[in-house]
Each structure stands twice: as C-alpha cells, then as structure tokens.
Amino acid sequence: MARMKFLCDAERCIECQACVTACKNEHEVPWGVNRRRVIVMNDGRPGEKSVSVACMHCSDAPCAAVCPVDCFYTTADGIVLHDKDLCIGCGYCFYACPFGAPQYPQQTAFGVRGKMDKCTFCAGGPEIAHSEEELTKYGTNRIAEGKLPLCAEMCATKALLAGDGDIVADIYRKRVMRRGGRPQTWGWQAAYGQDA
Amino acid sequence: MPNKAMLALAAAASLSLLTACGSDVTIYEAGVYKGKHDETATEEAAQRRQDQLRDRAMTGMTDR
Amino acid sequence: MKLMKKSGAAASSSLAPGLLGKAIGRRTFLQGTGLAVGGAAVAGLLPTSMVKKAKAARRIDPNAEIRRVKTVCGHCSVGCSTIAEVQNGVWIGQEPAFDSPINLGAHCAKGAALRNHGHSARRVKYPMKLTNGRWQRMSWEDAINEIGDKLLQIRKDSGPDAVWFAGSSKANNEGAYLQRKFAAFWGSNNCDHQARICHSTTVAGVANTWGYGAQTNSYNDINKSKCIVMCGSNAAEAHPVAMQMILRGKEQGAKLIVMDPRFTRTAAHSDIFVRFRSGTDVPLIWGILWHVFDNEWEDREYLRQRVFGMDRVREEVAKWTPDEVERVTGVSREGLYEVAKTMAENRPGTFVWCMGGTQHTIGSNYVRAYNCLQLALGNIGVEGGGANIFRGHDNVQGATDIGPNPDNLPGYYPISEAGWQHWCRVWDVDYEWLKARFDDNEYDDGRGGTIKPMNTGGITVSRWIDGVLEQKENIAQSDNIRAVMFWGHAPNSQTRGPEMKRAMEMLDLLVVIDPYPTVSAVLHDRKENTYLLPAATQFEQSGSVTASNRSIQWRDQVIDPLYEHKPDGEIAYLLASKLGFADEMFKHIEVRDNNPVPESVLREINRGAWSIGYTGQSPERLKEHMANQGHFDVVSLKAEGGPLDGETYCLPWPCYGTPEIKHPGTHVLYDTSKHVMEGGGNFRANFGTEYEGETLLAEDSWSKGAAIEGGYPQFDSELLKQLGWWDDLTEDEKRQAEGRSWTTDLSGGIIRVAMKHGCHPFGNAKARAYVWNFPDPVPIHREPLYTPRYDLVSDYPTYEDRKVFYRLPTRWKSVQARDYSREFPLIHTSGRLVEYEGGGEETRSNPWLAELKQDMFVEINPADANDAGVRDGQMVWLEGPEGGRIRIKALVTHRVGRGTVFTPFHFGGHFQGEDLLSKYPDGSAPYVRGDSTNTATTYGYDAVTMMQETKTTLCRVVPA
To answer: Which residue of C125, C193, C380, C652 has the lowest C-beta tally within 10 Å?
Structure first.
C-alpha cells in the first residue's frame, strides 16, 4: 500500500511562498490561518536555507497520541486527518507536533470556537467527498480525484515533493546522486522515522 | 480476623456490581478514533486511487 | 456584476484592513507563528454573518460542467502556463499545467494565487470621475465623450504632443500594438511603457552590440550551462520559476556565481557570492576581464571571426588593475580572480542580469560591459551560453518589440520617414494623411539642428513629470504635457515621487485605465478632470504574450470581464472612434461589437514586423503550440515528433518570413552551428560594412549551410541581383521586392530566398565591442550622481548636462556637483519581493499575497542600525537627498552590507507617512498599503535611453 509523504528539498527551496498561496487558493484558507509556511534558517547570511512546512502526516502521529477526544485518524495510505466536529480546540496537538502544524482559527469558515485546522494533504475530512460540508470545513479533496496536494504540484522549483513515499524518495535520491552531495531534507526522520 | 471476611464479601459484592453494569456502559478506549467514518480513508479507497496518484507523482514531481 | 455572490472570496470579506493584528516580519519562523495567532484574533472580532458569507463564497457544483482553459500567468516574463477551471462563468479552480515546457506546472507565490483575479472585489468596477474631489460613478459612454472632448480641446490649443500616453507591458501583444498605433494615429510619439524603466538600457546595449534587443538564449537553455553568472538579478524573488532551470543546471554541475550588493535569496544558492558597492558594475566586470586577458583565457579565434573592437576594450580594461578595482568596488583581487577562473574553466557559461544592471545613469555601459565579457569568452551564440536577460513584466518583451515605444515603431522600425512609410503601407493609410496628424513644426534636436516631432523620440515614462514641470521654452515640442493617460501603469515605480505629485496636480486631464485604481488615483490632491476607466485583466481577454525567451504564447480568455471592465482593444476602439480616426486605424482589423479581434490584430503585426521575425507566428500556429505543449523538450524547447516536429516552443522570434514557410523559431540567437531554417544565425549587419577601414563583417564564420561562406551585408533587392538569386523570386514577389530591403519587402520574398540559400536575411557581421554611436563607445565607469564615494568623482565624473535629450533638458554634472554623502551616508538601493509585482496594486489587492507582506520596510545592516539608533521592527524615516521621505519599518539584517540599505518598490498608498485610504474609490483600496520607495529616490537618467536611476542613490535613516 502506498504511503503518502511530503519531502522538502532544502537545496531547491527558494522561499518563494508558492506553496503557501497555492494552499490558500485551493482551500480558500482565511487570512491568519497558515496550513503551510516557509521557514528560514540563517536568514540573510551565508548558509541561508529555507524549507516549506505543514503537517507532515507522521507515521506515528504525536497529535493523535495526545488528543483527549481522539479526533484524529489516518487514511489507509497514511494521511493524518481529523474530525472538526469532535475537536475541542484544546491545543494539545500543537504542543505535541514537532512541526507547529496545527492552527486555531477562532471564528471563520474553517471552524468555530477555535477548532484546530491543519493541512489535509488535500484529502478533505470525514464528510462526503466534494460535499459542501467538506469544502467548508476542510477544503477540497484532491486525493479523491487522484491529484496530489497543490502546494507540491505548483512548487516553483519542485523542491516540495508529495506522493507515495517510495516515489518521492526515488525522485529525490536521483537528484542527490546527480548533485553528488549530502541530502538536504528537512523533517523527514522526525515525521516518518529513521528507517522510512 | 473478621476484617478478612468483610473484605472478601466486599470484593465479591463489587464484582457483582461491575457485572451488573452490563452492556449499557461504553468503556473508553484511549487512542481509538471517535469521529465520523470517512469513506475515502478506507483500504479500498486508497487502493482505488493508488495508481492514479502514482502517475500524478511521476508527471508532476519529476523534472522531465 | 455577475460575480457578486462570490463576495470577493472568503478572505477578502473577512478582512478588516488596518485592523490586522501583528504584521509579519520578513520570513522568520516565530513571527510566522505569531501571525497565526494575530490573524485568529482578528477573525474573532468579525460578526458571525461574515463567517457565513465567507462560507458561501465558493460553491462548486459537483454535477455542472467544468471548463478547463489554458492561460499564461501575468506576473513576470518567465511565461508560466496555468489551467483555469471555470464553472458557470466563475473561475473556481486553478490546476498546474504540467505539459508546459517552460514551467512544468510550477508557479511562484503570485502565479499560485492567480485565481483571485477571477473575483477580486478591489477593482475599479465602473467608470468614475472626480467631482469636487469625490469619486463619482458614470457610464462608459459619458466617460469616453467627456475624455474625448477634453483631449480634442487640448489638441486644438496645444497640439497633439501636449498629451502623453503610458501604455502597458502587461497588455497582450495585440493591446500593446494598438496602444502604439493609437498614439501614432493621434499624431504623437509621446507614448511609452514600463520597458523604459526596466530593460531599456539592455535593449539599446545589446541591440547595438550584436543585433537584437532581447535575451539571446532561454531559461530552459540554462540547463546546458556550465557556469551561471547572475549580476544584479535576484531570480529567486523576481523570476522564481526560472530558478527551476538554474538549480537543475547547478545540479548537473554548473557553477553558480551571484554578484550583488545584497546577499539575496538567489545568492543563498550560489557557489560564489561577490558583494560589491552598488553602482560599480563596470569596474567589477573590467576587473574580471582583466584577469581573463592577463591569463589569456579569451577566445581568440572567436574574437577574430566574430567581434569588432575588442582591442579598444582591452585598453580600457588594462587601467582596471586589481588594486584600482578594489578601491572602487570593494572586491579583492582574489575574489575576482576566482570568478574569472571559474568562468574561463566552465564554458559555455551564461550571464544573467536584471534591473540591478540596468537602472543606472550609466546602465547602457553596464550592459555593454557584460556583453564584452561574454564575447571575450566566446559565450554568445552558443547553447548554454548567452546573455540571459530576464525581462520583467509578462509581456514587456512583446511591448518592447511591437508596443508603445516613443523612439521607434513596431518591430524597431525607426521613426524616420522610411519607418513611417513602411508602416503606412502595412496599415494601408496615406503617409501624408498620417503626417498631417502630427505637429509639423520643427524643434531643437539637441545636436545643433532642428527636427519634427514625428521623427524625434517622444517624452519617456521616466520623465513625463518634467514634461509637465519644466519651463515651456525649454521643451523641444509645442507645449508642456497637459494631459496624461495611464493605460496599465503604476506611477509609484518611477522616481521622484513628490515631484510626480506636483506634476499630477498641474495636469488639465488625468485618465487612468486599469483593472485597479493604482496610485495614480490617490497620490495627488486633484478635484476634477480625473477619470478611472476599468480595464479587463489578461484573464478576461485573449491574445498573445511574448515571454522573456521570445516565445510567443497564446492566452485563451478565462472569464468574461468582471463588472464593467473592458479589454484594451475595445477601449482603444471606443476612444479612436470618439477622436475620429477609428476608420483609418482599424481599416484592416476585424472589429466585432466594438472589439478588435485579437487574431486579426496579430495578423496585421505578422504582415509588418519583418525586421524581427514577428511574421511567422500566425495565431493558428501559436494555438497549435499551446495545444501540444507536452511535445516540447524541456532543455531544447524543440518538439520531438507530432505535428510540430522540429519547431521551437511558441516560435521564439525571429520566426522569419510568412507563416507558410514554417520557420521553426529561434531558440538561441546568433548560433552558427545551426542552419538558418533550423533557427541558426550569426551577428547582425546593422551598422554598415566597415568602420575606419576595418571590416565589420564576419570573417571565416557563417551559419551552417550558408551559401556565402563569410560575412555579408543585409539582404535587399540589389544584393539578390548581385548574387544572381533574383529569379528565385516569383513574379509577384519581384513586384513587391523591387527597391526594397528584407525589412520592407511586404511579400517576404527577399527573406524567403535568402534563407533558401542558408543565409540570414539580416546579414552576417561582427558584434561590436566598440559602439561608436554611444556617448561612451567603450564602456567606462562614471560615479553615480549621488555617490557615497565623492572622493572618486574627480577620477570618474559623470556626463555634461544636455539641453535637449528626448525633448527635455537633462542634468548630470550639475547634480553631481554637490557632495551629499555626509548628510546622507547610506546607499539606497531598491528591488523586488516575490509576493508583489511592479507598483503592486494588483498583488497587494490579492489577500493570499497581501497577507504575506503587510509592511513596507527597509533592510539595514546591524552596524548602520546601531549607528542610527534603530532597532529591528521599529518605524523609521528614510530620507532622500531631494527631500522625499518615507515612514517605514526597519528590518535589521546582514543581508545588506554595511553602508547600504534596501527597500522594495511595490508599495504605495501612503505618502510621506500619511495613509491615503480615504482617497480610494469605496472598497477598492489594496489590502496592504505603504510608503513608496520612489518617494525618496532621486534624479538621474541613462545617457542613451533615459532609464531612471533606482539602484544607487543616497539616504539617511532616522527613528520615526
């Protein structure tokens, strides 16, 4: 079975924010909620590196482990989703998440009473696929249409990769071999473990 | 040692009490998803889209 | 108004500009997190009704049909295709166009946010005018009538040159062409567009060196480079998708060298970064070339065969010893030796430059210095090499080629009588009739003689304000500029903001034609005679658009114009009708419901622009290319198999001759390794055949398969006869070609026959390292007008002032005469951000982008910040030496070196600390506003093209 993963190639990321606006565009994420963002190390100095970060859809997701109402579930192909009807917006998942992915809009289309919102890997949520409920609470469902997350599909330099972990790793491995250098991934081991 | 007899009795009573609860009470299973069922999260759904997603990755993620 | 139900999208309706909590600093993780909280807090203030409205913003009907339309992003010259999904006339989704060989589906922040154009509520919406200082709605009919009457009155009182038009590099080719034609039929050369302040020095510099004013290779071709040098180009922000090809090139082993006063995001990916003092590119390049010559790394055989005048450059370079270079630029001997060695050892290498190299008082010298370096290394006319000039706007190349330029006609035909005669034949109008439209008096030509306005360059976009402010007797035309029409133009991208405000206030008429109000609507304190006309975006009309690499892509129309917007063509038609020249102007252009049909306009361009090969790209061919994008190889841009086998993607010009002869387009200019019918070529013979006894024609070099093995002049009927090829023409072609050259033969026969013999119609000559018709035939260094190194002015002074230059007195020496460096100790340089484009009106009105950069800011080095008593995040005044000052946020960073500050130029809507929000028409102000960089910039213009100086001036920064 495929296992969906994100991988951001820090050698290619140019901090252009296409992933961020693609996400806003696709799901009409409101101002102030950032399912994805670009973070920068050594800003403005030699060694400057940037990576695009969202929910990494961890294999053993810490958010799910700490959730007091157990609103998280993982799809058969490894996408970590949650049920906003159940979420109480307590914020434990934010503490647990190594990537700072969970967002807490207080009162927008994406959740009332401060329910948590996060990247869905463009796979919607536990509502009927493409229904108005799903669109309103979670955004579109590209995965159900056989498409991958728009952030990765529109990445300016193909730094951000998304898809089955085997394919993503394969594409990336070829690139690293061509470069002849060390891999410059970010977050991969934290999200998917040493062996993945 | 009357206390011993009392304890045994109490233990027996409490056991029978628990049994009496029967099927009316849900036992909390920590870590198990409690939300709505997602039709697109199932094994079958994932299987169905697997090839399509693979093709999509080969089209969209590679350098060509 | 059909889109009201979308209510400007979720984000726009839930936004409360000015209320937004914590502004984002530039790219830090913690601040990003803070933003999320701040945003949530703001959202919490909104009434529930707004939430409901936002929810309803986007409804996708799972059962209704979705139409997929391919279009091209409008935010830079890379030319990224995208697929718009449209349902019931509403743009509901945006999908990546993986097939495009240019972007492979990729976008930057702007491209990935395009869909917002489909429902933005921040647009002008309907025609409006100022009545006693307040915006008032009016009908199109009234607007056209009122504007037309006023224009005609001004024409009667002051002549046609009292009106000045700014066209647009964002218009499609058809729109841009009609803008130029409109000015011509109005009877004036007073029209210009953003290319003036973008790459005018490039176009003049490269065209005068080797033939054409355009990028020689392509973004894709960088895959083949072994060394990529970027000087004054920050592609990671300005052309992000180009970085895909650059990083691919780097992965295949190319060395990436970035030279810039700033450690840019592009520099972050470099192998070698060279920081130098802003305004010293000539010494920098001569410093590199000094090592090349010193180590005999130049390509001698190439220079012998294909380059004229390098010996004269060599003499100048010899003066730039490593010590002197270091004294002027601040770069060490070792630093530039490493660059020279890397370039020499890794050939072919490409040289990329952008605004950092062009926007200077000696920008045309910089450009030619870059050219000389590339020529010395034999890097021009080869795959993987080239002068990869990344243009700015999506169609700035096209608008330069065939659009509203004041100093030439479409296809770079001169504004001499010969050029006008050519186009009059294409347009089928009587030359004498057209001539009578112009002012027939003669004025000072600046060279001791007089000239008619029809034959002299009009006032440029960089200087229109002086056309208003200057004393009438000092201007070489009938009167001051009294009316200005901004037809797709942001005024905040020009320097000298406070003077611009004054100029706007002095005008008798100001007309703004744009999808958004722009800063032109709010900068001034006008009360009357000011109009806003809503123009459609590129997504609301179809047409062709020329990417930086000269590929001409076709945009299909995504949606109908929102509100009461109209396409450029229709506006041109309505105005021309009112002004009385529509019949002549549209004589051979099909017009449907007041709309000139874009295909018909393109065919007229095809019939006239022979000189640059804009003739083979018929609408049918272009559409077929768009439909078969997947057939083109990403590196060579060549179709492999299929119906377009062997053609280059979207027929990069020159695509010579008629569409029928199927020239494949030219991927790499001047490439002798290919046959001319495969896109091969050589340098252009545009400057005669010899100079001071030396031949200018190529020696022992010709394009593959040429029947003439050596240099030859441009083709004309005489040359064909001499060569015995005259009878290769058909009888009809002979009739049309007699007495004509390849550029004026409307049959295309001369071109056809020349190419049939493997020859290039424009001849085969040497590139000119020595350009005798420029003020500095060999590029030399001259200190900026506002220099921090006043001690160098005596060694490297600027030009003498000139009485008439593009009709205006122009100062150099008298500005440089004063030393400002003590009062204003910091170099002020400016540039782009990835989130915004140009003046930023469009992009700052897009909430998905605006959220990412909410404050105008200045990057300042920690040392300078401490000297000024300024902390990170603090509000400061940045003050320029001409009195303009802006109130902005300090961003303390090592990105800029000590002594240099950087500001982005996309902001507007504030003036010297004051928010102009109340001056915008209701509901149309951009979400993000800020003081414009150019309120604090200064005087200074290139001596060839009138390019403005925005990269090197002075300022001081003080706490606000």
So the answer is: C125
